[in-house]
Design a protein that fits this description.
single chain; globular; six-stranded mixed sheet; alpha/beta; 11 strands
Length: about 800
């Protein structure tokens, strides 16, 4: 249940409900909401705003409701009509619900009993008032209810609503409206009271903190989290802190005990017993698991409660717990991984701190001096548990529905109790969660219908422009084929490419192209895993400089190392007193590039690129893909791939995407990444299949494997024939500035140059169109920009320091 989010360098999107992936979606979000204390869907008010603006249509609601109810839709519920009609009325207008105290104020102080809801139509208002007035004047002319049913008598008393017939005749319409609404509210309240079975109370919390908070308002988690977060921040340091944690090597639990068990102590009152507690742990030589057992016993947690108690304890600070778990289990993704057993140590430390904080808060707020194992029983006796819904809340829902449906007080007062029970059960069966579930279905149905309608309209419009100029050439083959990641931002690029060159083909697959590897580029300080976050690579690949550039690269490497060392020393020195003074004096010089990046970002980027060429790797490099030795890198697995492994990778991808025949002369394998100047979560904008890194190296490796004659020969024996005239070309698409960098162009056969020129023209036009489409989503862009102007705009956004989200990533992408 802990978040599986990786460190910031691999901060890739992931399913926050990954622990419930085996469940149907609607069941999973409901359980997730209870587990994590959040909402499974939007609030009803937000769905109603979408309904009002036409993003959801009434037809969508009706269709989804019928599909959901099935055979139960036409079940007749007496005066309520069919179940479908009742639920549709509950969907079309919001049913508001409030806590009991707020509801009491709403009834007594607001105009809830003086004016109809705004959503009630004038026809329903008039009909309801006129029929109720006729009933009153006929059966209750003097305001008394002799001869009426007990519920009618109780509904009008107290207070007496009608004094005498002559005065009632002179009442204004507003007075009649108030009288009708008062009667309606009393009828609903009495009906629920007499017929509705009582609802169970909300379950009692299991954690001491929650019970203590309900009983006194004291929050022990605020104390625990403040200290625990500070220690976690120091423990998680990846070499950037000026003062590293001295006890980190001992592990989370031992490091904490050594640091806080030394002489001295915390000045905070609630931590005065910490040193003695840690000394007792040391004397008994307790392991983290033994410490957890002691804490559970001291807290009085029974054996059958342990699983739920420990889960809720970890989830109380689940972000830090999840990061620690990732650092422990996926140490290959951080420079300084967490030692084994760190999460258990985290839990042990948290429980120690919780015992101290709970004892302190209970003593200060309630005067509790007894043992912690008896605290929960004491707190439970002080908490009044309300039912999940009070009678007032249940009645208020029916009161609103009665206005919308035009149910008269007379009918509700005389309604038999069995029908009242049916009414209450039907309303409560279609709870807020159930209504929001149908809203969400309708919201998605509308999107699906709109998308399919647009595709159908496009298809009816005839062939795309340019079809008459471009046809399949050379034995019916496409002029080129493009393989991209299945990332949604690549979908629009593929769409534009197919519109520009209708005879080409595009394919989608996971952007690591089945090449799971640790990759270290020429200028990289360490290897980076390029594969999905749940995959551990077994191979490592390095990029090497071509022999011609070995000398110049040696000088560039030394220069990069010198600049990096100096930058690190300046960074660390600025934390000292003298360094801080120097930073204050000379730091103003940093304002010049800052201002340039804001005012002229595109020009500044070109200038920085020109200067960076003196430090960048040489233009010609190659990947060492083939395994030439049997050694294994202790940190990155096998160095290179065997030919058999290359064959397996190429065959898997080509068969998965259906590219097994009719190969073009050029097949482009296109990875992707994203540039972001001022967003620390830049990795989230890169390729998710590459764990938040760029997918260019994977594309390059795959193309190199597919071009290997040995790989092709074996694939031909296995029935997958790649023609000799087919050449795989790799590249990387920057989805932010729409730039495309092509790898290993110098290896392209001269016979394929005309094909490459045609490909380049189509790709450049697709870049312009994609940028133009994206600019319609940006407030910073004129929606009528030309393709070239749009391309310049996205290039500037990518280098603009003021744009913290220059791309928007997966939010409002053109394909969505």
């Amino acid at each position: 249940m802990l978040p599986a989010q990786g460190p910031i360098a691999v901060f890739v999107h992931h399913n926050t409900l990954h622990t419930f992936e085996d469940m149907p979606f609607e069941e999973a979000v409901a359980i997730g909401a209870k587990t994590f204390g959040c909402h499974p869907y939007w609030a009803e008010e937000q769905y109603h705003r979408e309904l009002e603006r036409g993003r959801i249509l009434s037809d969508d609601l009706a269709a989804e409701l019928i599909d959901d109810l099935g055979d139960r839709a036409e079940a007749f519920l007496g005066f309520l009509g069919t179940r479908y009609q009742l639920r549709l009325a509950m969907l079309e207008q919001p049913l508001r619900l409030a806590p009991t105290r707020e509801l009491e104020w709403l009834i007594t102080e607001s105009d809830a009993l003086r004016q109809f809801r705004d959503e009630v139509s004038p026809a329903v208002r008039t009909k309801l008032v006129e029929r109720t007035r006729a009933w009153i004047m006929r059966d209750l002319p003097d305001g008394r209810a002799e001869g009426q049913s007990a519920r009618v008598r109780e509904a009008i008393e107290p207070p007496l609503l009608f004094f005498d017939g002559s005065r009632a005749k002179r009442w204004h319409d507003a007075t009649w409206v108030g009288s009708v609404l008062h009667l309606l509210w009393r009828a609903c309240l009495l009906g629920v009271r007499d017929a509705a079975p009582p609802l169970p109370s909300a379950p009692m919390p299991i954690r001491h903190r929650d019970l203590l908070f309900d009983a006194s308002g004291a929050d022990s988690d605020a104390l625990v989290h403040g200290m625990l977060i500070r220690f976690c921040g120091a423990f998680f340091d990846q070499g950037l802190a000026a003062w590293p944690l001295p006890t980190r090597a001992a592990g989370f639990f031992r490091g904490f005990c050594e640091l806080y068990g030394s002489r001295g102590g915390s000045p905070e009152p609630w931590l005065r017993g910490l040193r003695a507690e840690l000394a007792a742990h040391a004397a008994d030589a307790l392991t983290p698991l033994a410490s957890i057992r002691r804490s559970l016993d001291d807290l009085g947690v029974a054996e059958h409660e342990e699983g739920a108690y420990l889960a809720q304890t970890l989830l109380a600070l689940r972000g830090w717990g999840g990061m620690l778990w990732q650092m422990e289990t996926r140490g290959d993704r951080v420079p300084h991984p967490a030692p084994g057993g760190s999460l258990v140590g985290f839990l042990a430390v948290r429980l120690i701190l919780e015992r101290l904080a709970i004892a302190h808060c209970a003593r200060e707020s309630l005067g509790w001096e007894g043992p912690l194992c008896q605290l929960r029983s004491f707190l439970a006796s002080r908490i009044r548990r309300e039912p999940l819904l009070t009678n007032e809340q249940r009645a208020f829902q029916i009161f609103q529905l009665a206005q919308l449906r035009g149910w008269r007080p007379e009918v509700l007062c005389r309604l038999p109790l069995d029908q009242w029970a049916t009414l209450v059960s039907e309303v409560e069966a279609f709870s807020s969660i159930e209504r929001r579930r149908i809203y969400q279905r309708a919201y998605e149905r509308r999107y699906c219908t709109s998308a399919l309608s647009a595709l159908a309209a496009y298809h009816r419009g005839g062939e795309p422009r340019g079809h008459e100029q471009h046809t399949h050439h050379e034995e019916g083959r496409s002029p080129f084929q493009v393989m991209t990641c299945i990332d949604d931002r690549e979908e629009s690029f593929r769409r534009h490419l197919e519109e520009i060159e209708p005879s080409c083909e595009t394919f989608g697959t996971a952007g690591f192209f089945a090449v799971a590897m640790y990759f270290r580029g020429v200028a990289d300080a360490h290897a980076t895993p390029l594969c999905p976050v749940d995959v551990t690579p077994q191979h490592s690949v390095r990029e090497h400089v071509a022999l011609t550039f070995k000398g110049s690269e040696r000088i560039r490497k030394q220069t990069r190392y010198a600049i990096g060392t100096m930058t690190h020393r300046v960074h660390m020195g600025s934390r000292t007193f003298i360094g801080g003074l120097a930073t204050a004096v000379f730091g103003a010089g940093a304002s010049l590039p800052l201002v340039m990046r804001v005012l002229i970002p595109r020009t500044t980027a070109h200038l920085r690129t020109w200067v960076g060429r003196f430090l960048a790797p040489p233009p010609v490099t190659h990947l060492k893909l083939e395994r030439t030795e049997t050694t294994t890198d202790p940190h990155a697995g096998h160095v290179g791939y065997t030919v058999a492994e290359m064959i397996s990778i190429v065959e898997r991808v080509l068969r998965d995407i259906g590219l097994t025949e009719r190969f073009s002369r050029l097949v482009v394998v296109l990875g992707h990444g994203s540039s972001s100047l001022n967003n620390p979560h830049e990795s989230a904008y890169n390729c998710g299949a590459c764990a938040g890194s760029r997918g260019g190296p994977n594309a390059r490796a795959f193309a190199q494997m597919a071009n290997d004659p040995r790989v092709r020969q074996q694939l031909a024996r296995q029935g997958l024939v790649i023609p000799e005239s087919t050449w795989f070309l790799s590249g990387e698409h920057d989805t932010c500035d729409e730039s495309i960098h092509v790898h290993d162009v110098e290896r392209l056969p001269s016979t394929h140059m005309p094909d490459f020129i045609r490909l380049r023209a189509a790709v450049n036009e697709a870049r312009r169109r994609n940028a133009q489409e994206r600019c319609r989503r940006f407030f910073s862009a004129d929606p009528n920009l030309t393709g070239d102007a749009a391309l310049r705009h996205v290039e500037a956004r990518a280098e603009d320091l003021s744009q913290v989200r220059p791309e928007y990533n997966h939010a409002t992408t053109p394909s969505a």
